[in-house]
Prior knowledge:
This protein is mostly beta strands. About 10% of the residues lie in helices and about 45% in strands. It has 3 helices and 12 strands, in the order ββαβββαβαββββββ.
Amino acid sequence: MGDPEVTLAAVAGAHGIGGEVRLKLFGEGAxxxxxxxxxxxxxxxxxxxxxxxxxxxxxxxxxxxxxxxxAEALRGQLLTVPRSELPPLGExxxxxxxxxxxxxFDEAGEPxxxxxxxxxxxxxxxxxxxRPDGKRAMIPFRDGIADLRGGRxxxxxxxxx
Length: 161
């Protein structure tokens, strides 16, 4: 299956006339991008020259993106890295990308669906579960409500109603 890609940011558009781009971040902030010298945009490798916080996200410069037109051409591109390049996790930590696609069951082992997205609106992570009938429901990713156990999510179905 290869090394899965993890999305760290999306290019929101050009910043100024010198080739910088505005980024919408999906990680921990601008500093989290600095550990990566190379990001990928649609399979195309981009060498990160600089990144700083700005505009509610970040502003970045990539080698070879030297003017506004080149920067604007990246608009809408997702910036990814191979999963293997992310730092190791501590006990109880997880990457959102590792949760997407996990099966979701109740305590008795009855299937409830599959995790299709992870959102965070400021009060903790929310799992979006696609039910067997195709409908979707959101559930807080909290102990006793939805737990990660043995490579799957065990959830209280009351919260999926």
